[in-house]
Amino acid sequence: MVHFDTQKTEKTINQVTLLGRAGADPQKRGTEEHPVINFPLATHYSYKYESGDILQRTDWHRISIFKPGLRDTVYKYLKKGQRVYVTGKLSYGEVKLDDGQVRSASTVIADDVIFFQNQQHPEN
Predict the structure, then answer these.
(1) How far is Cα 81 from Cα 64, in angstroms, rounded to an integer?
(2) What residue ranges define each of the domains in the chain, with the CATH number in brackets?
(3) How confident is the model over 42-69, as pLDDT tens digits?
């Protein structure tokens, strides 16, 4: 076992900020004692090649929420397609799929989720 002297441990930073759209309604997982809310978040960026062609790439992020108040709010109010701003930290581990397979996965453990109002688009 390794013991660290807190006086000599250097500070580290693990901070993530994402602005995107929820790819699905949130799902409740875990146990009654240790529930977690998960949802996928899509972000994208565009890249313009010298030829003028434009590539748009979408990245999917797995968001997990453990904080009780935030967890309950997100589960109750977040809907697929809603735009949200997420801050948190990256975590790496394994996820057991419904078919029993185990896969490595990165997850953003959310500290805060800020909802944006869905704007009504005028009819053309």
Answers:
(1) 17
(2) 16-115 (2.40.50.140)
(3) 999 998 888 989 999 999 999 999 999 9
